[in-house]
């Protein structure tokens, strides 16, 4: 019975954030995703490179909506995405034809490596998974996927987070770098 009792939770829901925080979060997310998407559709639009991946949406939640979270800090953003991308591409290359296994290995290994390197960033799990289950356009990038879209896209979002999250006197980003 104790096993099931643990599923009831231990604390109450956190309080709602104020309107100012909601507005700054929206502005940051809009600017961050807009910068990455703009480069995707204009700068890289005529190439085989992609610039925007689904895991950046989850990074936006952390970078602009949960700026004090350890999971949202620059080390976690950059390290989590880059390490997870390397792992995802490797899993895809090492386990061709076994997508279920490559997917599982990629995400589980990404989590373990992010823990071991103090770079835990939940969207990194999606970044590793995208490397395995992504389109042929993603697969054709190989390890370039680590640099573009992952590294460059995360860097663009970090720059926007540094600029937008420090405009308001009530907000400060980052909490730490390393």
Explained architecture:
- By secondary structure, the protein is mostly helical.
- It has one domain (19-164).
- The chain has eight helices and no strands.
- The chain has helices at 2-5, 19-43, 55-65, 74-94, 99-116, 123-133, 136-141, 144-164.
- Helix 2 packs antiparallel against helix 8 and helix 4 packs antiparallel against helix 5 (99-116).
- The radius of gyration is 17 Å and the shape is globular.
- The mean pLDDT is 95.
Short description:
The protein contains 8 helices and no strands. It has 178 residues and is mainly alpha-helical. The mean pLDDT is 95.
Give the N-terminus to C-terminus distance in angstroms: 42 Å
Radius of gyration: 17 Å
Low-pLDDT runs of 5+ residues are: none
Portion in beta strands: under 5%
């Amino acid at each position: 019975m104790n096993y099931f009792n643990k599923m009831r939770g231990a604390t109450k829901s956190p309080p709602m954030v104020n309107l100012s925080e909601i507005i700054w979060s929206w502005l940051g997310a809009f600017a961050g995703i807009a910068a990455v998407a703009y480069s995707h559709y204009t700068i890289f639009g005529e190439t085989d490179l992609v610039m925007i991946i689904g895991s950046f949406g989850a990074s936006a939640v952390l970078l602009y909506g949960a700026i004090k979270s350890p999971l949202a800090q620059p080390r976690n953003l950059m390290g989590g995405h880059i390490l997870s991308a390397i792992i995802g591409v490797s899993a895809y290359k090492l386990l061709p034809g076994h997508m279920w296994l490559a997917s599982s290995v990629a995400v589980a290994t990404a989590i373990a490596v992010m823990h071991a390197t103090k770079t835990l960033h939940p969207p990194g799990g999606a970044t590793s998974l995208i490397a395995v289950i992504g389109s042929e356009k993603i697969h054709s990038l190989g390890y370039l996927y680590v640099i573009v879209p992952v590294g460059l896209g995360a860097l663009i979002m970090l720059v926007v987070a540094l600029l937008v999250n420090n405009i308001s006197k009530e907000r400060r980003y980052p909490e730490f770098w390393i």
